[in-house]
Write a structure and sequence with these properties.
Layout: H1 3-36, H2 38-46, H3 50-65, H4 74-91, H5 95-113, H6 120-149, H7 155-173, E1 176-177, E2 180-181
Antiparallel strand pairs: 1-2
Helix pairs in contact: 1-2, 2-3, 3-6, 4-5, 4-7, 5-6, 5-7, 6-7
Protein name: Secreted protein
Keywords: Membrane, Transmembrane, Transmembrane helix
Transmembrane segments: 6-27
Length: 183
């Protein structure tokens, strides 16, 4: 083989490797975007770059794999559904109290399923692996819960917070149909 042929083969090999690496990166990015949905966009916006964001999302998946998650028993599920029904009924007369209680119920449910709650941000990061779409709304609802405790939330904010808590609770209970908890 001549040096020109060797150089041409080497160049072709480099191009093929580059194409394969680029394709692998695109597939991996697409998988993360599909799995995390709006959470992917939030992490990318808060990170110094897409590579750092995707590294963070893969780290979440790694931490998630180490958890000992569990399904609720039928009795536990029914207990949470009953609490949720009572909470929604209370919203009519005491919306701020209902939102604060919804936050507490969601936190208990998250912990009972086996997700970490000691560090809220780290816990939500891991929770987003399974419940990415609901976590975004939960963050917003939790902020409204704080405002409700201080008497600063308006009725529409409180209503939307309950809707967002309901989506998370439904996801965690495994009972999602049209965005409502079915009991």
């Amino acid at each position: 083989m001549t040096p020109t042929q060797i150089l041409a083969i080497a160049l072709i090999a480099v191009v093929v490797v580059a194409i394969l690496a680029g394709g692998w990166y695109l597939v991996r990015s697409h998988r993360l975007r599909r799995r995390f949905g709006p959470e992917y966009d939030r992490v990318v916006a808060e990170s110094p770059g897409r590579l750092a964001a995707e590294r963070e999302l893969r780290e979440r998946e790694r931490r998630h794999a180490g958890l000992h998650l569990r399904d609720l028993t039928p009795a536990e599920r029914e207990r949470y559904e009953q609490e949720w029904r009572e909470l929604q009924a209370r919203f009519v007369d005491e919306p701020a109290r209902a939102v604060v209680e919804a936050d507490a119920l969601a936190t208990r449910l998250i912990a009972e399923r086996g997700y970490p709650i000691e560090n809220r941000d780290a816990g939500l990061a891991v929770l987003s692996v399974d419940h990415a779409r609901a976590v975004s709304g939960y963050r917003d609802a939790h902020a409204v819960s704080g405002k409700a405790e201080r008497g600063e939330a308006d009725t529409e904010e409180l209503r939307m917070a309950v809707v967002r808590y309901r989506a998370l609770v439904a996801d965690l209970l495994g009972r999602r149909k049209g965005g409502v908890v079915h009991a």
